[in-house]
Design brief:
alpha/beta, N-utilizing Substance Protein B Homolog, Chain A, Rossmann fold, eight-stranded mixed β-sheet, four-stranded antiparallel β-sheet, globular
């Protein structure tokens, strides 16, 4: 019997570390020397297994437990191995004989005497659950095509089918506006998108840097945006660490491109985090400045200087360590004179005790609100089984508080922009509608329809943006 593959063994080890440390899967993957030692193909497989198991572990446990006898109990490291094996068989289409054999060897590696039990459980899952998931996937794909339910209900797509296809909790899918699309998007990895930092490089220079690093870039619909055909060497290239570019989902880039940041604008960015959107907003202003001076004298460099002259982005975040990270990042990005980073609970924006820098009226206030992240489940799989229904209610309340406080800092005629990476009505339209019905919201009108993006298989994540003008 063949030994368990290196990718599967590393995936088990990483998941064990995630469990013991209660850490984020991506953080452990990035810091694992064993992952770095894998070749590109195995590294990709190990990453897919770790992120997939993390996002589907609740369903995987249900299937495993249903095949165990009443008294059987699995040690944590044996369960890690079983989860990897079931995900491999059920979600990655690994042939039954290979998946079962590899799964048994993973379990044998963790606990030799549990190999027989693993063999029995995995074979039953392969015989019973694999066909069930294939049928559920066909129903989901038919629903996505808009096909009608046929007489024998073979194309009826219920929440149980969506949960089996995606591995996500049924209650979460049921609350979403686009559950079929979300379920189908989960059947493949999220693409890696990057954006040029226009403060350092123009689009052509960024493309050359990406090509030289062997990352196989292709241009996207947002200027300066690229999707990577091969992202394995991105970390080693130094391009992200040096802030030559930023990693950001295409939907997030589309949102930043819509924020009306013009040359000389004063912008308040609420929820700055590590500063990714700060760089995107500055790049947007540079593009706008270049467009307005197209055909003029001085070239690209001088138009960049004109675009940033007088412009200021004040970024606030409630976590001090993120403020430090963002400050250092702005220095590397060539934006120290443009972006200032301040630690502040955004609910205190209207308070007299807020830092002096906040006490002004801004042309644009951009609220990148803390949210459930349900539009980004492929990238942040921990959300799936840790999020609870009560969390949505709490987040919506927090978002409304932040939006009301941020509204006090918008000048007359200025724009208040509210964004999330959530798919929940309560966090998106629900917050905006409640705000507009409030006393502070009476001074604002919704400008155009909100932007909504839906997670797509082989495409970007789900995001929301509403733009409100101060009247």
């Amino acid at each position: 019997m063949a030994a368990a593959s290196a990718a599967r063994c590393v995936a088990c080890d990483v998941l064990g570390e995630v469990r013991r440390r209660e850490a984020r899967a991506r953080d452990v993957l990035r810091g694992s020397p064993r992952v770095d030692m894998l070749d590109a193909r195995d590294r990709g497989q190990a990453t897919r297994l770790v992120l997939g198991v993390t996002g589907a572990f609740g369903l995987l446990d249900e299937l495993i437990n249903a095949r165990l006898s009443g008294r059987a109990r699995l040690e944590p490291k044996v369960r890690d191995a079983m989860r990897v094996a079931v995900y491999d068989i059920l979600f990655l289409g690994t042939p039954t004989n290979v998946g079962v054999s590899q799964g048994v060897e993973l379990v044998r590696r963790a606990r030799p005497r549990a190999a027989g039990l693993a063999n029995a459980v995995l074979r039953r899952i392969a015989q019973e659950d694999v066909p069930a998931r294939e049928a559920a996937l066909a129903r989901c794909e038919a629903a996505a095509r808009g096909e009608l339910v046929v007489q024998d209900n073979s194309y009826e797509c219920d929440i149980k089918s969506l949960a089996l296809v995606s591995g996500y909790p049924a209650w979460l899918l049921e609350r979403m506006d686009c559950p079929v699309e979300v379920a189908l998007s989960a059947t493949g990895p999220a693409p890696v998108y990057v954006a040029a930092n226009r403060a350092l490089h123009d689009n052509d220079e960024t493309l050359e840097l990406l090509e030289a690093a062997g990352l196989q870039p292709e241009s996207c619909d947002v200027p300066g945006s690229f999707v990577l055909g091969s992202a394995a060497g991105l970390a080693r290239s130094g391009l992200v660490e040096g802030s030559d570019l930023v990693v950001a989902d295409l939907s997030a880039q589309r949102i930043a491109a819509m924020i009306p940041v013009e040359a000389g604008a004063h912008v308040l960015e609420v929820g700055q985090g590590r500063g990714t959107k700060s760089i995107l907003l500055a790049s947007r202003a540079i593009r706008a400045g270049e467009s307005s001076t197209k055909g003029g004298k001085g070239g690209v460099a001088s138009s960049k200087e004109r675009a940033l002259r007088g412009m200021h982005i004040l970024g606030v975040d409630s976590m001090e360590f993120k403020t430090r990270v963002a400050t250092n990042r702005m220095a590397r990005a060539g934006l120290s004179n443009v972006v200032t980073c301040v630690t502040l609970d955004a609910r205190e924006l209207a308070s007299n005790t807020a830092p002096e820098a906040v006490h002004q009226a801004f042309d644009v206030v951009f609220v990148d609100a803390p949210c459930s992240g349900t539009g980004t489940l492929r990238r942040h799989p921990e959300i799936c089984w840790n999020l609870k229904p009560k969390d949505i209610i709490s987040l919506a309340s927090l978002q409304l508080e932040i939006l009301m406080a941020a509204a006090t800092r918008v000048r007359a005629g200025g724009m208040l922009c509210y964004a999330t990476c959530s798919l929940m009505h309560e966090e998106n339209d629900g917050v905006v509608e409640t705000f507009l019905e409030s006393e502070p919201g009476a001074r604002f009108v919704l400008e155009g329809k909100p932007l909504r993006t839906t997670p797509a298989l082989g495409g970007p994540d789900g995001h929301f943006l509403a733009m409100l003008r101060h009247i």
